[in-house]
Design a protein that fits this description.
- This is PAS domain-containing protein.
- It holds the Pfam family PAS_3.
- By secondary structure, the chain is of the alpha+beta class.
- The chain has 7 helices and 6 strands; from the N terminus they run E-E-H-H-E-H-H-E-E-E-H-H-H.
- It folds into 2 domains: about 100 residues, 2-Layer Sandwich (Beta-Lactamase), CATH 3.30.450; about 35 residues, no CATH class.
- It is about 40% helix and about 25% strand.
- A 6-stranded antiparallel beta sheet has the order 3-2-1-6-5-4.
- The two termini are about 20 Å apart.
């Protein structure tokens, strides 16, 4: 799971080493800042307009964003990712910061067979269990139960 923050006023993206690796940047490149366009240019052209429209809508409305799209690597491989984010506003209501996560799902059979909400809950459950967060694990199992998924797939 890769994390990012985009300063809309400066048009600069800050991301972790996982995001840098996923988008084929040097590990420290996104720790300093990079304009958004080099990341957007990695998106497969067939997906780019749809993704741009969704991001624009999220910036205008403040609604959560979620898109599945493909990105190119230097080697010519294509990766499929799910990006989830939200645009935050200043006290004056002006869009200022866009933050989110990107998860690679390339070739994931589980992704193809499940809805994104279930996938994110399962990923969060796995992290909670790895960190020994029993209460969080219980809540996530309850959420998965509400999605009618508990028992049909391995937790």
């Amino acid at each position: 799971m890769a994390f990012f923050t985009w300063d809309l006023h400066l048009d600069l993206v800050f991301g972790d080493v996982t995001l840098a690796s996923l988008f084929d940047f040097e590990p420290d490149d996104l720790a300093v800042d990079v304009p958004i366009m080099p990341l957007v240019e990695k998106i497969v052209s067939d997906d780019r307009a749809r993704v741009a429209q969704s991001i624009h809508r999220a910036i205008e409305t403040g609604a959560p964003y979620q898109e599945t799209y493909r990105i190119f690597t230097r080697s010519g491989d294509v990766r499929t990712v799910i990006a989830v984010g939200r645009c935050f506003r200043s006290i004056d209501g002006i869009p200022s910061t866009y933050a989110g996560v990107v998860v690679e799902v390339t070739g994931s059979e589980a992704f193809a067979q499940s809805d994104p909400l279930e996938m994110h809950c399962r990923a969060a459950l796995e992290m909670a269990e790895l960190r020994g967060k029993e209460l969080v694990s219980r809540y996530l199992k309850s959420a998965l139960g509400a999605l009618n998924q508990v028992g049909t797939k391995r937790l």
